[in-house]
Amino acid sequence: MGECNFMKNSSIPLVDLSRQVETLGPRINDALARVISNGDFIHGKAVKAFEEEFSEFVGVPHCIGVANGTDALEIALRWLMRERTGTVLVPSMTFIASAEAVGLAGGRVKFVDVDPSTALLTPELVTKAWTNDTVGVVAVHLWGQMCDMEELSRLCRERGAWLLEDCAQAHGARFRGRPAGSWGDAAAFSFYPGKNLGAFGDGGAVTTNNSTCADWVRRYANHGRSKKYLHEMEGRNSRLDTMQAAILRVKLAHLSDWNISRRRLAERYSENLKGVGDLVLPVTRDGAEHVFHLFVVTTSHRDALLDYLANQGIGAGVHYPCPLHLQPAYAGWGLCPGDLPASEGVANSCLSLPLFPEMRDDEIDTVSLMIREYFRSTGHA
Hints:
alpha/beta; Aspartate Aminotransferase, domain 2; Aspartate Aminotransferase, domain 1; globular
């Protein structure tokens, strides 16, 4: 990799969206101009076209665009719990949206520990956490890798519970050759700008194989109406903006290639960082096709290394520094430090390194060299 001559005034961000915009700018401008020309800003043609294209990408018959990823989770959960509410098993190592949507939909969260090597739910941990009141499971495909959906699906089916996929970080990921968003009773996607498939603002979608679910979600997200001024139930206003759908259509055509690029860059990191200090590199499970929304390592020197990289102009990050069961929002729920040790261990040691499809090999090498230099200079190599 050569000698390290990285200057402190240089900058390698965690994510650089400007490079994507520079490449796709003319096509995005054309797509937006068509929306403006058509004047169909709400539920426009681009929304329907994107829903059809994304459902084909996911491998399901139904996709319903909504305003954001949290709405996608909540609305899907409202459908799943329309007849019976109860306890929903959610991993503690995830963003709060995975849990807060359960409460918003009327359910009760029970936090579950994760596999320390992948930070994912496992069938064994779900089985251990199961109670007579369990009605469903939220399987979070964290950092770009899917849970064991084959076994989780079987487990939920045998116990008469539903399974919701949180695919916010897993656009294009696969397990046993089958895409994220096609396994569960329903799935929720976020199109937040930094996602593998990101809009220029908020956006989300629910995907499902169930036509009854799709019809309910579509009506609920549009004020509960089946046609103009005919409302069959109380719903809400959660629509995927036509401008955002137009942008997503342009980007969707490149998503598979971007995911290939992410995997190649992740392999370069892994080669560069093999055997460095106490770094533990990402593990890809058997049968999984990782899309590396994030490249996450763990180290007992996380905070010091994070500060060191920041001082060198390298924008590493932490996803996430506090597991949900220890968040103030869930104080008093009966869980204390030490109760979910793997989640707490990952939260205390995880570090997300810069990774985005347009990143150059020399940037990967520079970040790697700085990490190696940190461990060498501190005597932790």
